[in-house]
Amino acid sequence: MIRTHRRLTAAALALALVVVSLGAWVRLSDAGLGCPDWPGCYGHLVGVPDQAHEIAAAQAAFPGKPVEAPKAWKEMIHRYAAGALGLVIAALAVMAWRQRAHRSPWLELGLLAVVSAQALLGMLTVTRLLKPLIVTSHLLGGMTTLALLVLLWRRQRPAGPAPAVSAPLRLLAGTALATVVVQIALGGWVSSNYAAAICADFPTCQGSWWPTMDVHHAFTLDRELGATASGALLPAAALTAIHWAHRLFACVVLVVVGSFGIQLLGQRRLSGHGLVVLAALAGQISLGIANVLLQLPLPLAVAHNTGAALLLCAVLAACARVFQCSEARGRIPAAGFPRRFEAVR
């Protein structure tokens, strides 16, 4: 049972990374509305309309929604992968519940709740016509699923010896994780508002270090795609503000997460985590710059989203190890006290 649980966890972790990447592929290739309904596609639970009579029936059932089979297939591939992930996580939750007498099942049950919410957000993404707040929430839900699976995977691995960890390093670990989460949210807001191409130069934006920006409309959350809260066309200055905020905060991520990785390099038994964090950070920064300079080619744009997921995994795994070391060190005096007390007696 334990071995099966570990294998399912590893499979779910790999599948979650695939689902996050597929979601980026769908979004960045403008296929988010490739299917106007949910969970099927033009009424098809399996496949998409491709025969002449199927296309005619689909257009009659969904007037004004012309069938674009390539986009529809992208959306359905993403849904199939997400459905498979949901089934694997459901199996993990059932197994954990059956073993609840031996260990807590709440992490698996939490995963099941997040995936259920993700299904609802996936439906709303389509029915609310790619509303940015819903699309960004859907992306964050996918990242949350991935993060919880990382924690579940780490829980199943035997812990090595616990090195001493200082309070400042614990604080830096938590700060690094928080900055990555904020940056992912900002990146999702850029992507869901289609603001990635508004700044085509680097390191400046539109030839300026402080371009004209409309922060108010940029970060008004409750609005439709491409519109202000009042329904007017979203100004280009708002898209500029969205993009520039993401780029500026990348500097914060570089400093904080870079410092965290460097500190880990100097820690006994934590240097491996430091290398992984720094490699993921360097890769993500490089992909972000390349996307601007090369005008957002689809493979690089998808890779940038996947890189964000990998950076989150690297920082989260390092944080988990740092706090695991802290807990282990905190237990040592309590465990050792009875023996020393007996020796004195």
Describe the fold and architecture:
By secondary structure, this protein is mostly helical. It has two domains: 157 residues, no CATH class; 182 residues, no CATH class. It is 70% helix and 0% strand. The chain has ten helices and no strands. The C terminus is likely disordered.
Concise synopsis of the structure shown:
By secondary structure, the protein is mostly helical.
Question: What would the keywords be for this entry?
Answer:
single chain, 345 residues, mainly alpha, 2 domains, 10 helices, disordered C terminus
SS-derived structural category: mainly alpha
**What percent strand?**
under 5%
Please estimate the helix content. over 70%
Number of H- or I-type helical stretches: 10
Alpha-carbon distance between the two ends = 46 Å
Largest sheet: none
Given as residue ranges, the uncertain stretches (5+ residues, pLDDT < 50) are 332-345
Shape descriptor reads: globular
Number of strands: 0
Task: Give, in order, the helices and strands.
Answer: HHHHHHHHHH
Mean pLDDT: 92
Give the number of domains. 2
Q: How large, in whole angstroms, is the Cα Rg?
A: 23 Å
